[in-house]
Amino acid sequence: MLQRKCRGKSGPGMIRAQFELKPPPYDLKALEPHMSSDTMEYHWGRHHRTYVENLNKQIEGTELDGMALEDIIIATYNKGNLDTVFNNAAQAWNHDFFWESMKPGGGGKPSGELLRLINRDFGSLEGLIKEFKAAAATQYGSGWAWLVYKANRLNVGNAVNPLPKEEDKKLVVVKSPNAVNPLVWDYSPLLTIDIWEHAYYLDFQNRRPDYISTFMENLVSWEAASSRLEKAQARDAEREREEERKKEEEWKSRFKS
Ligand SMILES: [Fe+2]
């Protein structure tokens, strides 16, 4: 995730920080021939950089300054106003997540718990890939497609998406327009593909389906997805323990009174 770097003191006792553009976890040429260094230089070096720089300018001196990036995304989304701060914050986060969803020599097959859940929730890896490709191909205009772990009770303020309990704890594929990401629905993203034209136009022109296939077959990092799944399940288990603790405390206080 984006790192903050200290910018020095601003006002009595305040240490202000700004978000820093983090490089992808591999050389900009390392995804060739599947994603060219030209694409990486434009996409990371210009587009991603602009989101981060704009975000830093927009939050300076506001109540958002000093908050974690994820908290800025959720706070601005929940105001019901997808303004430029939300767009830049979410795009900054999404791109970090996208770079880390790929690796040189990617593709292949997932393993372990991730594969078990893929087989359970999509029937097979082929089932997941088919659904993921369809979501990415059919997102109208700019946006993102995601594989997410959904294990929530929707405790993100006034977000409006109803999340039925019977669908908790499963892998799902979702797509989102523009900058929106599944954090705002309290899902745990495992993988994403950027389907803005700037992600693929230099290499594939208007052939978005070819770009999506290349991503799934040659770039995707199942190791990253597995690691994210492990963290998501740990987070979910901790939430459940916390809910149980709260329930117990409530019962105890009722019994006492
Ligand atoms: Fe992008």
UniProtKB/TrEMBL annotation:
Requisite cofactors: Fe cation
Compartment annotation: Plastid, Chloroplast
UniProt: Mn(2+) binding residues: 43, 95, 194, 198
Pfam families membership: Sod_Fe_C, Sod_Fe_N
Organism superkingdom: Eukaryota
EC annotation from Swiss-Prot or TrEMBL: 1.15.1.1
Top-rank EC class of the record's enzyme: oxidoreductase
Disordered, as annotated region: 233-257
InterPro entries: Mn/Fe_SOD (IPR001189), Mn/Fe_SOD_BS (IPR019833), Mn/Fe_SOD_C (IPR019832), Mn/Fe_SOD_N (IPR019831), Mn/Fe_SOD_N_sf (IPR036324), SOD_C_sf (IPR036314)
Manganese/iron superoxide dismutase N-terminal domain residues: 18-103
Entry GO MF terms: metal ion binding; superoxide dismutase activity
Keywords: Chloroplast, Iron, Metal-binding, Oxidoreductase, Plastid
Domain Manganese/iron superoxide dismutase C-terminal: 110-158, 165-227
PANTHER family documented for this protein: SUPEROXIDE DISMUTASE, SUPEROXIDE DISMUTASE [FE] 2, CHLOROPLASTIC
Family: Belongs to the iron/manganese superoxide dismutase family.
The protein, known as: Superoxide dismutase
Organism (species): Rhododendron griersonianum
